[in-house]
Write a structure and sequence with these properties.
The complex is a heterodimer. In chain A, strand 2 (59-65) and strand 3 (68-74) form a beta hairpin. The radius of gyration of chain A is 28 Å and the shape is globular. Chain A is of the alpha/beta class. In chain A, the strands form twelve sheets. Chain A has a seven-stranded mixed β-sheet, with helices on both faces. A seven-stranded mixed β-sheet of chain A has the order 27-22-26-23-25-24-28. A four-stranded parallel β-sheet of chain A has the order 13-12-9-14. The longest helix of chain A has 18 residues, at 3-20. Chain A has 30 helices and 40 strands. Chain B is an all-alpha fold. Chain B is 73% helix and 0% strand. Chain B is built from 15 helices and no strands. The model of chain B has no long low-confidence stretch (mean pLDDT 90). Classes of the chains: A alpha/beta, B mainly alpha. Chains A and B meet through strand 31, helix 26, helix 27 and strand 35 of A and helix 5 and helix 10 of B.
Chain lengths: 975, 431
Amino acid sequence: MDRRTFLKIAGMGSMALAAGCSPDPDRKLFTLVRAPDDMVVGEPQWYATTCRECPAGCGVIAKNREGRVIKLEGNPTHPVNRGALCMRGQAALQGLYDPDRLKQPLVRNKNNWKPVTYQEALTLIRRKTAAAARKGPDRIQFWTEVMGGPLHDLATETMAGWNAAGPTVYEALGYDALKAANAAVFGIDGLFAYRMEDADVLVGFGADFLETWLSPVSYARQFKTMHQVRKGRKGCFFHVGPYQSLTGANADVWVPCHPETETLIALSLIQIGLDVGRAGHLPFPLKESLEQIVSRYPKAAVLEQTGVPEPVFDQMARRLFQAQRPLVLGTGAGGPGANRYATNLAVNFLNYLLNPQLPLLAFEQRYRVETAAPRTSLRQQVERLRGGQTDVCFMHNANPVYTLPPDSGMAAALQDPAVYVVSFSNVMDDTTALADLVLPVQLPLETWDAYEGVTGAAGLQQPVLGRLNEAPALGDVLLASALSPPTDTDTYKAYLPLALNKRYGGIAQVADWIGMLQSGGLFRDPSITEPAPDPARMDPEALGRAFAALEPRPRGPVLIVAPSIRYFDGRGANKSWLNEIPDPLSMVAWQTPVLMHPETAVDFKVKTGDLVSLQQDRETLQGPAYVWAGIVPGAIVMAAGQGHTGLGRFARQRGSNPFRLLGDRTGFMAYPIAVQAMGRTVPLATTSGSRVQHDRKIALHTTVQELRHPGEHEKPGLTMWNFPLTLPIPEGYDPKRDFYPPHDHAGYRWAMVVDLDRCIGCSACAAACYAENNLGVVGQERIVEGREMAWLQVQRYLDKETGTRVSFLPMMCQHCDNAPCESVCPVYAPHHNKEGLNNQIYNRCIGTRFCSQNCPYKVRRFNWFTWSWPDPLNLQLNPDVTVRAKGVMEKCSFCVQRIKAAHNVAKNEKRAIRDGEVIPACVQTCPTGALTFGSLMDPASKVNALVKDPRAYQVMGYLNTKPAVIYLKKVVEEV
Amino acid sequence: MSELTFAQVDQTILNSLKPAGRSYWALIAVLAAGVLMGAACWLYQIFVGIGVAGMNNPVAWGTYLINFVFWVGIAHSGTLISAILHLFRAGWRNPIARAAETMTVFAVCTAGLFPFIHLGRAWMVYFMLPFPNQRNLWPNFQSPLMFDVVAISTYLTVSSLFWYTGMLPDLAIVRDNATGFRKKIFTVLSMGWTGRFEQWRHYTRGYLFFAALATPLVISVHSVVSWDFALGVVPGWHTTIFAPYFVAGAIHSGLAMVLTLMIPLRKVFNTQQIITVNVLESVAKTIVFTGLIVAFAYGTEFFIAWYSHNPVEQYIFHYRPTGHYAVGFWIMAICNTMVPLLFFFKKVRTNIVSLFVISILVNIGMWYERFVIIITSVSRDFIPHAWGFYSPSLIEYGIMIGSFSLFFFFFCLFVKHMPSVSMTEVKEMLE
């Protein structure tokens, strides 16, 4: 544990005591006229909690300044994310400060809402539940997102008191097929983890583990661990599927196959496994059944059906079966396709054939999201809603009206006057809009709770700021409305440690509890108690049935709905950062484009930006087309998340909701669909000016072979390609090239190293930058005009030939030693400081914009207007960073405020700043550790070691700007 | 012209100063309205933010700087005609020297407004002045924009003084022929000119020295303006040819503007006998010369881009004639280099209509030259991901119209109230 972490954790503990244990919560946010005794103005307090933006449950430490939480960072001690966060995690703050958050309970009064007090709302709930409980059994439903154990148990017990079965856990991304396949093959009706970092060859059948799948931050880290160059070798990843998600774009090989045919590829691989004698451990009937199944799909037919080129398939098969630690992953959360169950089944068998010990399947680590109810049981619940068997239905952060297909009848069921619908939502989302009573409860960042996203990572949640409103915790609502309280404690906060002690033990005294709060939870190694389950127990006949009726490849256009890295299942759509940061693959912000292959586009006579309508049965949606080579012809991909009828100002009536076109049978896929060009063009809010690099020295790559045998280096020269690496330090000064003398730096020369081989393009860094540096959110129209304010952009480049090989390049101010911006400003607003930083002095800037014109990297951002932060989003603003007004230039500062803070600490301790002590926001949150920051003057610093890597280069270095951002080439493997 | 007497010359010019008719004041009113509209647009921009203009991230300079360079360019010919041609004793410049100088002064004034309009925080513009302050902040004299401040203000000062000095004997003639209030004004303006021998001796010496002083400025001002671009690293800007290229272009556009102004002026004021077709023809011949220099400069740019073997540079010069702004490029290329070649034909360069039309076309071409240079380069520079397009917004058009209105407003006021042709210099020609 380093010093920073220790300080953070030490801070958490004392504040947890001070803030957490006060008897009555503050009702107002005071300015610092009356500050709490232990609050030091200017000193942040850190609280450990757990991110609940998706079911993964990453650990978070929240930075609280003067009572306001202003930044979330990953908890470095949390086993799931180890200090990193994704962009949704970074943006969780915007849910807290959502300008459209409901401020008090609302009761439906005919067609409008009547505000009531929390007490009145509670009374209503108590009356309605008591009446329903009296009426008979099972007349109350409770739909909820995945909840932590204690709260789930409390809900179950409360509902038992109401004479009803437990809560219905609703997750749109519910992994039904994967769970069913796990149940069938391994006898585990749930979701276990994968030890991806130990794999050497990885084959994915659609699992988008870098975006939404199970635990994206954790898998991003593990993927880059297995994928990094170690001893001249590198893990290899094949992504099989009809489209390239961000995950597929990071694969070494994308194996494009037609929709619904992934199963055949998995079966073909099984066939090879059987052929090479890997089925020795299977009991005979099962083996026979498998052989029978695969014999129906000879390789030639499979290749023809799937459209996979034979060399690509052979290569994948060869690598997979030669691998020492191969791992195969199933489909994404939603499917897609009618064969999703069969695919996952085949994948599980494939893993078994590859290694019967199943060393990379971590059965002891189970994901909490496995508690999500399968679609079949959801159907039954809806039936019971409609059939008059339910009187009261609670909705807790579940938005089934938005995410369930229209034929589920959910909306009609909730509108039924016989059902009293209570929503605990904080925003007027699509489902809440149909409720009879809205009782906003505390958000995860405001409440006491516990959540164990994966076994062993029991994270605690505690309020990270004072109260913004009087909303009660859901646990307290349950306790208050239970007929027979399941506990003697008055509050959920008091109940929580008891419940946790019962669950995990070890909370004997207050000190234990405080210790847990300080570290963010109870983290322990999940013990391997059970031996790996044996798939031998699968019923051969059931196996036969599963593959008996495989859906053939659909003819005609197919819509695939992809879970979104930005909006997840749609819950993030009202967060302006998530809208403003473009989708990493299409580079489109604020909109959801309809992705299609160039051939498909020609078929439908559309170009990028043309509005197209997609229709299935009675449902239609529209979106701008985006022509993209990373899809098979005929497939159309649209990300989920937009098209809400409610939710808030940033989401309402923006884009279309592709869930509306789906049905249960084909999961997140719909066909046949009718595609029609609308004859209109929509200006795309894209931040990308060109898809290719035009043969420039920007995002470079090298090969493993080249690294192994560094060939003859070209003689250094002065052209784009042979200009030597010139570090921004006096040693980089060359009198032959330099007109001006070198800069002398005082103690530090800050620099960043960006390892392109580790960058997956997820844009978490960009989100962290928005949060840390008070970046203006400009909105769709302004992005169309080219006025986005992102200081850090993850640029996406495609290869010229195929358009399917994607390179990502995080681009921010390069803090050049020979900065072109500095010399052209008439008033010295860009200023080179003693530590090599290129500072932008906002109050000196007069707005000539010459610096931006002259910046070869185009990283400077001009304030065309004064941007606004709708109340209370302004509470999130970082007090250490100026909020810029119209007319001034701004750009990445290397988080100078953090450098200054480190200076203060070091000065007080009479020492120099240590390597790794200054961590800019982007570096801090990067899930894969692609960014490293430090001083080039420190010979022992990490950056100094990294710039000696043979992969090191500078973007457009031949301009002799001497950038302080050094990139390391991406390593591709010629497979 | 030689058949004119001195009195006829005086009378012709003095006739132009007679009280104006309704149509003149209507024109002035229209121009004033244009100025007010431009001012309103600027005010709106100051209150709302520079975002009301069409500029964006890659293209952060737009019509404001295009117009700046355009008007500075226009401002060039006045001093060229009055100073350089004076030193060269080119007699044909005498009848048009006054109007050309006037054009210079007002064009510099108009041009000088644009950097202010362009600024994100125009109210902070005094940061560019080297005034003593307790924070010891000083402007950056390394910046081409500071060169601009010095160069433009020097040019404005010198050309205004030169203009006024040359006007003194004429102001005295107007004074002698005026009555009442006008006489009082011109008495003050003519600074006690009596036409005594010593006055003439000082005057001609002073004029000659001014001409000598102004001559390097003709070269330097637009060289400095060109360094706004040439000292940047942007492909298509970073080239040593820019200074002579811009000077030639500036004279090219200035001469065309002289024709554009003179042709209606000589008709309205009936000065065809003074501003003869011969004079216009001489201007046209000079335009052919400057047009050829400009064409050579265009060619050199393309050659150097090819020769440099620099992909970024090559891309820009491939992009200009074929890309998104190709129309602008071809307007520029045709209007500036092809169209003036028509002046090789005597019929074309002696025909008033064709002279006028071609002069307008060259003006348009030169405006587009600045458009092509300023917009295309940054719209497609080093980092392809950052590429973007620019098109002017309504506010920018409003300000552009305002700037043209302002120039013509001043010019029209001047020609009706001050001697627009140098009577004394025309008389010199008569001997």
